[in-house]
Amino acid sequence: MTRNLTTQDRGFALLLVLIVLAMAVVLGMSYLASAAITRVGASGYGDLVRARYLAESGAQHGLYLLRHNPEIFNGSEGAPLGPFTVDGRGDGYSLSAAATIVDGEYVLSCHAQSGRANQACQTVIRRTGSDAGLGLTQGVLVGGGICYVPAGAAIEGPMHVNGHLFNFGRITGPASATGWVLNYGTLTESPTWYADAVEIPQMDPEAFVLYRHENQLGEALELTASLLDKNGPYAKGDAVTIRNPAGVVIVSPPEGQTAVWLPDNFRFEGTLVVRGHLVLNGNNIDLETASRFPAIVVEGAVFVRNGARADITGAVFSPLGIQPSGTTTASRTNIQGTLVCQQQGYSASLAGVHTLEYDADLADVVPPNGGGTGQVEVVRWSN
Q1: Cβ distance 320 to 295 under 8 Å?
Q2: CA 368 to CA 373: how far, in whole Å?
Q3: Do 112 and 92 contact (CB within 8 A), yes or no?
Q4: Cα→Cα distances 70→85, 221, 225, 380, Å
Q5: Which of 137, 134, 146, 143 has the alpha carbon at shortest distance from 197?
Q6: Cα–Cα dist 109/68, whole Å
Q7: If we measure between CA atoms, which residue out of 354, 341, 355, 358 comes closest to residue 147?
Q8: CA 208 – CA 364 distance, rounded (Å)
Q9: What is the distance between the alpha carbons of residues 297 and 37, in angstroms, rounded to a whole number?
Q10: Do residues 325 and 343 lie in contact, with contact meaning Cβ atoms separated by under 8 Å?
């Protein structure tokens, strides 16, 4: 016998179905919510880990900058460097550094962001050992061609020519050349023929306009003149100032001229840079470096005029060497340091008495960009 469902039975069944559906919806929504929360949590953790590694990588970037160019951080406390981005997501980091009261010590800070996560890394480092010198081991170094040592010249120290060497004077020390070494004067040691070439260091006059030396920034004094005044504001050591600690003076000849002349009794302390030739044209000329920079850097040659007499303490960089102007029989020069030329060295026609005394300390010149890179030591690292 079959029992017909009443209205009450059908309502109860519908209610039961609705309850089951509601529970299924609740369970489904709970699962989706849980999955979304897990996904967001995983994404946030990923951003956090990424931000941490960005901060540590940024700190390594900061160490590199402090080693090679610490001045770039000047003012970075208020205006950090960056942001430096690493991909198309916009993740990146910024850097700042501040000097402490300890000489050469810095506090380097890196702030990184990845997504919604931020991380910071702070490092205390100590910077030492910048301004590596060239360490020239030759009293006279000539880049190429045929080089003569005239009869009145005396080289007290090693001499090398990337070419041929003809000696009519005196060389006290090793003499070498990539070609021949022919001696018609005095050699105190057996010469070396067909020696290996030696790289000739370059000194660009323009690099001295703004320079770095002994962890200091400097700005050269620039002027235009054909004759320097022995009482000028750059003479007698006055070129050395707080703004110009190496005493660099860059002189350009007037338009239409090619040389700068030095008069009697001209005394100078610092680095004299000439955009052209330099003419020694007087007695009692005294040039002395005030730093580990060269004493003289010229674009052309150093000319000895008539009976000029000059004492130079420091390295001399003269691409076209030391040449005569007029009758130089009564002339006398003395260089204590080193002479670097692209060609010629002392001219074969230079008369008079000319001495070069090699000095290893004065030959260890530093280029105007500071020479070498500093060494950095991590004192403390914290995330």
Answers
A1: no
A2: 13
A3: yes
A4: 21, 24, 35, 18
A5: 143
A6: 17
A7: 341
A8: 17
A9: 70
A10: no
Is 324 in a helix, a strand, or coil? Answer: strand
| Average pLDDT of the residues in 332-351 | 96
| Type and span of the H or E element at 230 | none
Q: Give me the mean pLDDT over the 325-345 stretch.
A: 96
Res 85: pLDDT: 85
Is the pTM here over 0.85, yes or no?
no
pLDDT given at position 216: 76
Q: Are strands 117-128 and 105-114 parallel, antiparallel or unpaired?
A: antiparallel
- Burial state string for 46-74 with b = 16 or more CB within 10 A and e = fewer than 16: ebeebbbebbbbbbebbbebbbeebeebe
Residue 42 neighbours by CB under 8 Å, 6+ apart = none
Residue 139 near residue 155 (C-beta atoms within 8 A): yes
Compute the half-sphere exposure of residue 189: CA atoms within 13 Å on the CB side of its CA: 14
User: Which range is most confident: 26-30, 195-199, 302-306?
Assistant: 302-306
Alpha-carbon distance of 59 to 276, in angstroms, equals: 45
CA distance 379 to 125: 5
Q: Residue 111, SS3?
A: strand
* Tokens matching residue 92: 């990146």
Nearest alpha-carbon partner for 351 in 168, 172, 177: 168
Altogether, the residues listed in the chain come to a count of 383
Closest Cα partner for 348 from 147, 142, 141? 147
Token couple for 199: 């790289």
**Spatial contact of 311 and 334, defined as CB atoms under 8 Å apart:** yes
Among candidate residues 375, 368, 373, the one with its CA nearest the CA of residue 201 = 368
Among residues of the chain, what percentage have pLDDT more than 70? 85
Question: Can you name the residues that pair with 296 across neighbouring β-strands?
Answer: 272, 316
Q: CA-CA distance, 104 to 242, in Å (whole number)? A: 19
One-letter amino acid at 25 equals V
